[in-house]
Amino acid sequence: SIHLMNRFLEERGSFEEKARKSLKTTGKAILLSALTTAIGFGSLMISTMPPIVDFGFGCALGIVLCYVSTMVMVVPLVVILNFKKRIEFPAWKKLAVFSVRNSKKTLILGIIIVVLSLSVFPKVQTDVNYLAMAPKDDPVVTKTLEFSEKFGLSGNLNVILVRGDLESPDVIEAIYNMEENIRYDPVVYKNNVTVTSIADVIKKINLGSLPKDRAKLQLIYTFLSDQMELLVDENLTETIISVNIPAGLSIEEQRDVVNAIDSIISNTTIPGGKVYPLTGATPISVSINDILMDQQVRSMLVSLLLVFATLIVIFGSSRYAFVTMLPVVFVLLSEPCVLVLLDVPLTMVTISIASIIVGTGVDYGVHITKRFLEGVEEGLMDIEAIERAIEETGLSLLEAALTTIAGLISVYFINVPYLEEFMRLIIAMITLSLLGAVFLMPALLRVRHE
């Protein structure tokens, strides 16, 4: 809307002439921007995680609807409201000249930033903490953390399934020994993990020792008849071991605990039976975390390829499409540095940033490239065309970036940690996209023509 309104006010002539020229020129750039943004969001739909798929679909649909409303409503509203004055920002012309005249230095600086960013990539953290998706002051979250701190229980269901003859003292002893190995494993012990099973109940009833014969064991089961369904199945062939892992552990700590427990399980033999790996909320969190990076890379690559193909179709040139994409690639390669500097991990929320930036960040380059090509068609020299493109579209880009950031700042009032991290990260990436378009695009366009 901002781009179309400013172009309408920039043109001369009757309302009809201004509208026709604005839609013919900037209207095409807006169409391309809408397509690339929708593609960026839409690429998230290849994810295997339903929440990310729904997010991508909803945002892509919203972008399409925004484009339709912009093309239908902006020009009529400008005419009806008799909005004639366009904001002038004289300093922007100086910035445009500075950007073009120092383009080579800017390009070198950009390369240095990318190299530094890639060097800190190993320090990027990933995390899946469901409590961080809830409001900080939510009473349920507060009490869960308090309960976990005092009693070492998380409220999450983590279990180990054991199959075997539970009437056999050897099987009960094997289960108990496995529990003891888990309890006193350094990693498990350090993280205050608690383990409980039928073997513990039997030992307690038997005055601190495990029964050595079947008859005594069967007698204990008879005593526990009213509570049996909570501990074992009706055939006495299956039981579960409850594993309580404290809330608030980092994903690395959770992974260490899961790996330690599964290692002990793999080295445990149940006579005539079998024990299965740990399952429940914590192992699921670890598994989701492990696929986050793969999801990030796949959705980003799909987004880049589709956006690049769209740019080629619209511009009719693979070279201009490539030049327009390069500032976005610069921003994507700078993401590790931003993540580390802001101390933001990759989560189920922030994982979508890369694909979003491909779609939204390329918009800035699209408008500059389109205006540059208009200047070339009018007979301007390359440097003049670049300076005019930055001067005339730069302010609209700044306004668009500021309005987007202003909308994102409202996320602070939601008081959800993951969303706050998402907001901080995407604001930083949008700012980089703007800077990349304003300062890197001139350098790339000059290299393209030289």
Q: Short summary of the structure?
A:
By secondary structure, the chain is mostly helical. It has helices spanning 2-10, 15-42, 50-80, 90-101, 103-119, 139-151, 169-183, 186-190, 198-205, 214-223, 251-266, 281-315, 318-342, 353-377, 382-409, 417-449; strands spanning 158-163, 194-196, 238-244, 274-275, 279-280.
Derived from helix and strand composition plus strand pairing, the structural class reads: mainly alpha
Unreliable stretches: none
The CATH class of the largest domain is identified as Mainly Alpha
* CATH fold group of the largest domain: Multidrug efflux transporter AcrB transmembrane fold
Helix content: 55-70%
The Cα radius of gyration reads 30 Å
| Span of the ends, CA to CA | 34 Å
